[in-house]
Design brief:
Among the domains are: 51 residues, no CATH class; 62 residues, no CATH class. The protein is built from four helices and 34 strands. The chain is α+β, with helices and mostly antiparallel strands. The longest helix has 28 residues. The chain is rod-shaped and about 200 Å long. Strand 21 and strand 22 form a beta hairpin.
Length: 373
């Protein structure tokens, strides 16, 4: 056997020994059993126990701790366990070091259920600025006050009188506090207001005949003027409504007449006539008589007399015509021969009538005596 062969064999033997040793080490180490640590955990082949536990397997209670059969845990004795005396609720949590509740601002109190609003929200002031909301712990401010540092101490001075809604902090041009606005901006509310449902400051727009800041006073100093117009002033004794119901307005009566406010017509001076007393005829042609005796022609300024009347010497339709007779063909005729009746007498029941019955010889003729059969 040569040296080379011997050396090769030795190398193979050494390699085999090393391989067997490695396999044996792996088997030995891999088969080592890990310890049972109970409530703890294993670290590098040993148990690490939690607070309150001790022992090789963390199965025993540590000194100062005892087994609680209810919770089945090792815990401190009840007399050594710190606990807050009350429930800290949803606004705090228990501080086991101080044995007191640590409250979340703005809450306070033993159980953190007392809202601790800054300065009490000004609730004790006059007038109060606001009040603390027991549910939120935040100030609810009254009208006219805003939250500045959380205490309703910010006075709002942007109010104005909105005709539809009253005091409005957003009204353009508003420069009042709520208190100032509220004292002047009021709903009209009365029948005398032009708009009873609107707000006004300080005076409401009133209907004619009403006065006062809120149009609640019915004026009684109205009177009917000579022109038939209701006017307000000294000496008046009527309300506007009463005056309007009795005072009739006339057309312009000029310098020859006066307004009759009860009728709403001009009462013309003697000789003058027409709606505005601009037409002149003697005695107004007796146009106001019943029945009228004539009318004044505004163009000719002369009387035009009604049937049965004639112009007198002064031209005023005062001449009563007495020459009427009964014309068989036409009835009352002013120029019938022998006529001696006035028109009124001729037209009377005993005067000139048409024969209408079949028994008359002169049927459809006029006669001034009883018809002949």
């Amino acid at each position: 056997m040569t040296k080379e062969s011997t050396l090769r064999i030795l190398i193979w033997v050494l390699a085999g020994i090393l391989l067997v040793s490695a396999i044996a080490a792996i088997i030995i180490l891999g088969g080592k059993k890990k310890p049972y640590c109970g409530k703890g955990h294993e670290k590098k082949g040993e148990c690490v126990c939690p607070l309150g536990y001790t022992g090789e397997n963390c199965a025993s209670c540590a000194p100062g701790y005892q087994y609680n059969p209810i919770t089945k845990l090792c815990s401190e004795p009840a007399e050594k366990t710190k606990k807050c005396p009350t429930d800290c609720g949803e606004h705090g949590k228990c501080n086991t070091t101080t044995n007191k509740c640590d409250c979340t601002p703005p809450w306070s109190g033993d159980n953190c259920n007392t809202p601790n609003c800054p300065d009490g929200c000004g609730a004790s002031l006059k007038p109060p600025h606001g009040k603390c909301n027991a549910n939120t712990g935040v100030c609810d401010c009254n009208k006219g006050w805003g939250i500045s540092t959380g205490n309703c101490g910010d006075k709002i001075s942007t109010y104005g009188c909105n005709p539809k809604t009253g005091c409005d902090p957003t009204l353009k041009g508003g420069d009042q506090t709520y208190a100032s606005c509220d004292s002047a901006c009021k709903k009209c509310g009365n029948d005398g207001c032009v708009s009873p449902t609107d707000y006004c400051e300080p005076f409401c727009a009133c209907k004619t005949g009403w006065s006062g800041e809120r149009c609640g006073t019915k004026d009684t100093d109205w009177a009917c003027s000579p022109l038939g117009k209701c006017v307000e002033g000294p000496g008046g004794t009527l309300t506007f409504d009463a005056c309007a119901n009795t005072c009739k307005k006339c057309p312009d009566c000029g310098s020859h007449g006066k307004c009759n406010t009860a009728k709403g017509k001009c009462a013309c001076d003697e000789g003058w006539s027409g709606d505005s007393c601009l037409t002149f005829c003697p005695n107004s042609c007796f146009a106001d008589n019943n029945p009228p005796q004539g009318t004044c022609d505004p163009t000719t300024k002369r009387c035009i007399c009604e049937n049965g009347w004639a112009l007198s010497a002064n031209g005023d339709c005062s001449e009563l015509i007495s020459t009427y007779g009964c014309n068989p063909d036409t009835g009352c005729d002013e120029k019938f021969p022998g006529g001696a009746m006035t028109l009124a007498a001729c037209n009377a029941d005993s005067g000139c009538k048409k024969c209408m019955t079949e028994g008359c010889f002169n049927q459809n003729k006029w006669c001034d005596t009883s018809p002949q059969a």
